[in-house]
Amino acid sequence: MNAVRRGAGVVGELLITAGVVVLLFVGYQLVWTNVQADRAADAKSDALERTWEGQASDAAEFDLPLKNGDAFALLRIPRLGDNYRVPVLEGVSLEVLAKGVGHYPETALPGEIGNFSVAGHRATNGEPFAYLDQLETGDDVVVETGTMWHTYEVFKEYIVAPTQVGVILPVPNEPDAVPRKELLTLTTCNPRWDSYERLIIHAKLVESLPKGEGRPAALGGDG
Question: Does the N terminus or the C terminus of the chain have fewer Cβ atoms within 10 A?
Fold first, then answer.
């Protein structure tokens, strides 16, 4: 009987240890990855703004060719808060998405005809798109670049399977169509704490404003 009790005690201790390990891992995923990602995103954003402040007035909008991990724009979504600011980096690897949101290579750049497509985490790793489902038709999404403010207006939101990659085509879901509009597509996991679906937001360009003319109306304007 004593052996049985000792065995039960050992099993109990192992279960407690396993539970602690699980809790620590969950804490790491829910808290610490956000802390790290927020720091990395802020550093990228601050560095990008310093670069823009020091560039010549006739500088190119983008420093091409873009390399994986390069930050080249800032994403601002008023619906998600006045201080919402996330760097847009080239590429969609896990490493890149831990520092901001990622631009799908080969898709259009901000302001261009085609489909400027971006991916971001909805949970953990900074979760920049945690509340993307709150966007509504008519909401503004502003993309700031070195020389321009590009304002897009949301016109469609829907859910797809992860395999439905046609959402980032130049004309979404129409592989043979010729693009004639400037679009923005935001993609993220759905539901928030899982990844068996994708939440898709489409928006259309409504204004491209040179920075020398002030801020866009979507951000309050000042020029």
Answer: N
* pLDDT tens sequence for the chain (223 residues): 555 555 445 444 544 444 433 333 444 455 656 667 678 788 989 999 999 988 877 789 998 999 999 999 999 999 999 999 999 999 999 999 999 999 999 999 999 999 999 999 998 877 999 999 999 999 999 999 999 999 999 999 999 999 999 999 999 999 999 999 999 999 999 998 888 999 999 999 999 999 999 999 999 876 4
| Whole-structure pTM value | 0.83
Q: Has 202 been annotated as catalytic?
A: no
- Domain with 156, as residue range(s), is 31-219
Q: How many domains are contained in the chain?
A: 1
Active site residue 180: no
Domain of 129: which CATH number? 2.40.260.10
| 81 torsion bin: left (phi>0), alpha (psi -120 to 50), beta (else) | left
